[in-house]
Amino acid sequence: MIGAQTLVKMLEKYHVEYIFGVPGDTSIKFYEALYDNQSGIRHVMARDERSASFMADAYARLSHKPGVCECPSGAGSLYTVPGIAEANASSIPVIVITSDIPLSGEGKQTITELDTQKLYESITKWATVVKSVNKIPEVIRRAFRIATTGRPGAVHLSLPKEALCDEFSNSAKDLYADENCCTYPAFRTRGARTDLEALVDHMAGAKRLVIIVGGGANHSQAGTSIQSMAEWMAAPVVSTISGQGIMPDDHPMALGVIGDNGFHPHAHRAVEEADVLLYVGCKMGSVSTINWSMPSEKPGRKILQIDLNPEMLGNNFQNTWSVAGDARLVAEDLVTLLKGKTAHRQASDWVNSLNQQRLDFWKQAQQAFQADTTPLKPQRIIAELNRHLDETTIVISDAGTPTPYITRFLKLAAKNSRFIIPRAYGGLGYAIPAVVGAHFARPDARLVGLFGDGSLGMSAGELETISRLNIPVVLIHFNNSSFGWIKALQKLHCNKKYFSVDFNANNPARVAEGFGLKALSIETPEQLVQGLDMAFNARGPVFLDVKSEPELEDIPPVYSWMTCQAKHDKA
To answer: pTM here?
Structure first.
């Protein structure tokens, strides 16, 4: 048994079902091993290495198993970097395997020679070179353990030709896996009892308690416990973009998104008026705090924080109390302790007034939801999409043009529905390949991909992958013929000196058709309604090219932009 076969056997032991990748010169023995093995591992061929890493990222987010992607040496390793960096910074366990040149060729200008370990060290939890075939089982176990434990993240393994092609001489008993690390978070930790009791004391003494949830709460699957805690304490729950969907959007305690991008004003008000803020699985970074200006300084206000990673506790604000532990386990314990210490609370006048403001907000939004203007307002597009969302829908969005409208106006049905968006680095080109990974994680789900034309230009090749695999996805392209996000910034901060942000609209629907998808060009509200109805009734992939209003016409709901525009209007 050679190293490539040993690698496949070890991946089998960890119940790996899918590997996302692109073939290359250095990976042919690995592909031969997959072919000969006739195992349950399916290789999903992408058209670009970056896309393969995005697929693995989305797969891991939804399956709660580590995602695995592979690529060849040289350029393949370079192309994979964006997706691996995104996964690692977003606390998503992805294992990237790069095949490599022979060790004997090091330092000899061998084609594609690259120090991949050094390349990946700054964007992963661990990067290593497997220099001996007999080390493969040990390294695979370490890779899965590091990826899934503590703060989950990405791991990189480089396998030179010798590791893949030499004979494995160790005993078969070395081929075993740690079952605890086949899913994540592995080895969940609880907070210390005394710390939890102190946290409960602070919460019980609150008159206006607000719970802020981040992506860590979603990764931990803490939604049920957080909802129970919110209902018992009659405490509003607000979320970062990554924490969106932790509770049903129509729940009376779920007030919406905070931060700079796509915020809800009633959610901001809740944070500012609270006397106790409980952050759960939230990094408290620049976007969710609007560059650390929210919450503002307020005498007597308490900040409590729960995070799996102790390094994040009190990192950006002075906490009153901190607890290190898994969001779901800590939330479960808090519910038990709160029920033993406090009576079930009813919604206060303050909570009722927040909900009244929320009701008014959605009423005011109806005008944009029903707008018949062309190009179509993004608000109208999201409102029509909302009519089709159910408990099985997974919405995946790119960063950029659609983001503030989606985070503000999308209405998830909770339960098995999810919203996924790359928030660590905000790289474009994520949504189209990500729906592929999502499909293999959740084949029962109704998938929706949302992206602008900048993103389409970076991942259009994966339309062929979607067509080849016949993935039932509704792809909605916001076509405003520009890098809209940057153009809006140039309007606000550069006196409308628009430079290198515009391009031709062309006909993306014909491109999608050329790749084998059903596609429609949409310009009117009637076409939008009909197109969405058709797309959601279709069994295969459908591409909707929607001519959408540029950001210049109506400033998107980005707090800092709206504040800047208000200053311009007063000047």
So the answer is: 0.96
| Number of Cβ within a 10 Å radius of residue 33 | 21
Q: Contact 460/432 with Cβ under 8 angstroms? A: yes
Residue pLDDT, tens place only, 60-96: 999 999 999 999 999 999 999 999 999 999 999 999 9
What span, in angstroms and rounded, lies between the C-alpha atoms of 347 and 252?
9
Q: Which two tokens stand for residue 115?
A: 């120090």
List Cβ<8 Å contacts ≥24 apart for 464-468: 464/47, 464/515, 464/516, 465/44, 465/45, 465/46, 465/47, 465/51, 465/433, 465/436, 466/432, 466/435, 466/436, 466/515, 466/517, 466/541, 467/515, 467/516, 467/517, 467/541, 468/516
Q: Which structure tokens are listed for 552?
A: 């210049």
Chain segment 150-188, per-residue pLDDT in tens: 999 999 999 999 999 999 999 889 999 999 999 999 999
Kind plus residue range of the DSSP H or E element containing 70 = strand 67-71
561 or 434, higher pLDDT: 434
Rounded-to-integer distance, Cα 517 and Cα 96, Å? 30
Are 231 and 253 in contact by the 8 Å Cβ rule? The answer is: yes
